[in-house]
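Quick one, tokens below:
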């Protein structure tokens, strides 16, 4: 919902941010997939069953980080989220 509002309230900023983020999307998705696989493997090695998922952060959340930290997108590294839910130990 925040992304939708952001898109209409600040269209120029939204479009600029979306372009910057999309330019490196494939690279981020590949890195996130590698991290998820590695975590799953390590958990399996020690017999921990877990659901491991990752996803990109929402544009508005990234925008808030840029504004609150007074940094550019290049200096914001947390643009993906990783979830680990333990199912059984």
């Amino acid at each position: 919902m925040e992304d939708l509002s952001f898109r209409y309230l600040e269209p120029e900023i939204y479009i600029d941010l979306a372009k910057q983020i999309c330019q490196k999307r494939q690279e981020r998705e590949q890195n996130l997939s590698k991290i998820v696989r590695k975590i799953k493997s390590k958990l399996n090695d020690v017999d921990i069953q877990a659901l491991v998922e990752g996803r990109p952060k929402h544009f508005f959340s990234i925008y808030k980080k840029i504004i609150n930290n007074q940094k550019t997108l290049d200096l914001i590294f947390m643009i993906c989220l990783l979830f680990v839910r333990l199912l059984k130990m």
